[in-house]
Amino acid sequence: xxxxxxxxxxxxxxxxxxxxxxxxxxxxxxxxxxxxxxxxxxxxxxxxxxxxxxxxxxxxxxxxxxxxxxxxxxxxxxxxxxxxxxxxxxxxxxxxxxxxxxxxxx
Length: 106
Fold this sequence. Notes:
This protein has helices at 2-11, 22-41, 46-72, 78-102. It is built from 4 helices and no strands. The chain is an all-alpha fold. It is 77% helix and 0% strand. This is Four helix bundle protein. InterPro entries: 23S_rRNA-intervening_sequence, 23S_rRNA_IVS_sf. It holds the Pfam family 23S_rRNA_IVP.
């Protein structure tokens, strides 16, 4: 949820003409991450949970791309970008590790 909070803070200063463009896309991707983790944890099977973790991971990579684009467009400074990307990288590692831990051993 920290990623979502940071994303909303970063995108608050984006130009108003991006409200229905990049701002909306970034915020949806950010909200999708914890939402899919929560939904997956409420499912009845490990397989379902793993699938929702996969969706959350995809949203994390989508968000990473969109934040880099925002910086390229000059909407986000490099310091702020790097701070959020560092948090995202840690989350991506945790999601990957968690998903791996749910897989049965051979």
